[in-house]
Specification:
Strand content: 35-45%
CATH superfamily: Jelly Rolls
CATH class: Mainly Beta
Mean pLDDT: 96
Order of helices and strands: EEEEHEEEEEEEEEH
Largest sheet: 6 strands, antiparallel
CATH architecture: Sandwich
Radius of gyration: 16 Å
Structural class: mainly beta
Strand order of the largest sheet: 1-2-10-7-12-5
Distance between the termini: 36 Å
Low-confidence stretches: none
Length: 177
């Protein structure tokens, strides 16, 4: 795996190193030793997957409030997504800044981010599937979110017309300090 730091502290794009032959490829998607070497959490306690049938589906922007904050490792295993995070850590030099990256089944990228960031993604193809691991167990009463198009963050989503949202995601408020 190749680890590429981003402009947001603790947010890392991880590129799979594929060993290929005529059968296909093999790649590691997690190695505790390599993650620890790069200062990333290795306390991953839950694995999740989500399938979105339609291009333009947006899931986010979600986070769990402290002390239940989650570090996440996100990978698109079918189709393509635009994955985005917003830094909600008040003491961070990148507070209220966002970062986004395209993750596809072909490009071999994953996104790792620490707790304290809101997360969301938008599908760029029909039938896109995302797999992710988290560092905390889901705690419903700690679930929080901010509006996907909050002008404070000004995330540049690839698709803005005809975005498909859940009722819950449509109702998240704008961010307040």
């Amino acid at each position: 795996m190749k680890f590429e730091k981003t402009e947001i502290a603790g947010v890392v794009v991880i590129k799979l190193e594929k060993i290929q032959d005529p059968r296909g490829y093999f790649a590691r998607t997690f190695c505790r030793r390599e993650f620890e070497t790069h200062g990333l959490s290795t306390s991953l306690v839950q694995a999740n997957t989500a399938l979105s049938h339609h291009k333009g589906t947006l899931r986010g922007m979600h986070y769990q409030a402290a002390p239940h904050g989650e570090a996440k490792l996100v990978r698109c295993i079918r189709g393509a997504i635009f994955d985005a995070v917003v830094d909600l850590r008040p003491a961070s030099p990148s507070y209220c800044r966002w970062f986004g990256v395209e993750l596809t089944e072909d490009n071999g990228r994953m996104l790792y981010f620490p707790e304290g960031l809101a997360h969301g993604y938008q599908t760029l193809q029909d039938d896109s599937e995302v797999a992710y691991m988290v560092s905390q167990f889901y705690t419903p009463e700690a679930e929080k979110g901010v509006r996907w198009n909050d002008p404070r963050f000004n995330i540049v989503w690839p698709i803005v017309d005809g975005v498909l949202l859940s009722d819950k995601d449509r109702q998240w408020p704008d961010f307040t300090d």
